Amino acid sequence: MQTGLAAYVPICDAIALLFQPYAEVVLHELSSQSVVHIAGNFSKRELGEPSLLDEIGFDPRETTIGPYEKVNWDGRRIKSVSAVLTAQERPIGVLCINVDVSHFHGVIDALNALVHVSGGAQRHPLLFKEDWHERINEFVQHWTRSRGLLVTALSRDQKRQLVADLSKEGAFGGRNAAAYISRILGLARATVYNYLNQAAAAETGAPPDGGA
Predict the structure, then answer these.
(1) Pfam families recorded for this chain (predicted)?
(2) Matching CATH number, 3-115, of 3.10.110.10, 3.40.50.360, 3.40.50.2000, 3.30.450.20
């Protein structure tokens, strides 16, 4: 982590501590395009993962981005805001604050149902709208909801099918995507690759290299 960003680490920790367990703060380093610090981690991101800012046409001349809405790996709705950090008038990082608002959405839904009020908040453009983390999260939540399932309670066969369906959607094209999918499904990375091998063999009719 470059020196200029190190000063923001206590700020990240303080924000996450003040709003725990609802806030996660992620610090991105622009020079390496990677995650260099995470406080209050609930997204299952890891240090050193690519920030993917180069894939979304990110404009470092912006100062504050958001608020915008995202979805977490387990379906929780996240409200986020990002700030571009500078040193000597040069952008060096991005500090993202993610707040879990799923509980508040539940309260709002209950109140809306009670007074028969319809409608909802407009979805803001996403900073990471092309981020494969977001695409994987959206696909997993659609896949589980459409089957009346929870990602935290999938059986082995259901996880195998989900991995196969993710593969068909091209979800494994992102850097470190297999590692991310293995974490959110609670699988060893070798098991994910084994499921991919089985899915490929099923499509071609060839016997898989290994069992489950």
Answers:
(1) HTH_22 (PF13309), PAS_6 (PF08348)
(2) 3.30.450.20
